[in-house]
Specification:
About 10% of the residues have low confidence. Helices cover about 20% and strands about 20% of the residues. The chain contains 2 helices and 6 strands. With about 130 residues, the protein is α+β, with helices and mostly antiparallel strands. The strands form 3 sheets. It has a two-stranded antiparallel sheet. Strands 3-4 form a two-stranded antiparallel ribbon.
Amino acid sequence: MKGVFQCWQCGQMLKDLILPVSRREECTHCHADQHVCKMCVNFEHNHCREDRAEPPLDSEKANFCDYFSPSDHAYQGGYVDKAAQAKAQLAALFGDTEQTHSNSDAKDTLSPAELAEQKLRRLLGGE
């Protein structure tokens, strides 16, 4: 039995998802686990409607729930690349703006996040 679903995190179509969904199933685009509370039809408003299910420690991590049933409307939009978001916050912390630097004959543009990371590495003696 196969179904067509969207990844709960990024919205990528999960074509040919074999049911029942394996605990190890993940999105090929963002690598998010798919046998998670947020992908289940029983998950609503940040809690499980199934009274017999054990409350999870993390609703975004794979689990062994026996009551899991994949939802075809789990994707709520708003996927954020957490690494990019963290780098942007680091850049804001240092108050950096985008700059350019020469590397041989080519000019490369560093994003504020990359500049902040570079400064942090220098500060910690990494460069």
